Amino acid sequence: xxxxxxxxxGATMIELLTVAVIIGVVASMAVPRFQRAYExxxxxxxxxxxxxxxxxxxxxxxxxxxxxxxxxxxxxMTITIFQDLVNPTSFVYDDGDPLVRQDTLTGNVDYxxxxxxxxxxxxxxxxxxxxxxxxxxxxxxxxxxxxxxxFHNILRSTGRVRSYDNWDEWAQEHAGDAx
Length: 179
What we know:
minor pseudopilin epsh fold, single chain
């Protein structure tokens, strides 16, 4: 004879607690990966900001038929877009040049380097880029034990920006170039 109080359907409290513990353990293992992915997305976002600033300066130069430039400040981690009026042939951000916009790089960018002198490049009314050096920008980010790098190259003749995710990709594309 079956008892009316005992049911064969449903779950016991111990079974529910076991499932909750398993879900907790799996979630605790996934959180660091989500954190690292989020930081990597922030790094990529900062690199998109660099490309965006370069393209904005080029677009403004073409639209206004005047020379605009972008200056990179390593110490302050800033990107400055300026109208190049004071000394337009020197590819330099001078004190008298009107400031268009200044952005601070965030998103886990630890270092930014350029191989252009004065850390500035300008864009002329025809869209071409002016700078002394190779026209390359490198950003480096370190998240916990992972090292991220991103390269941007500005083509002098057209002012176009090309981005690369790592050194090997950049080196393969520029194998025969002399800088």
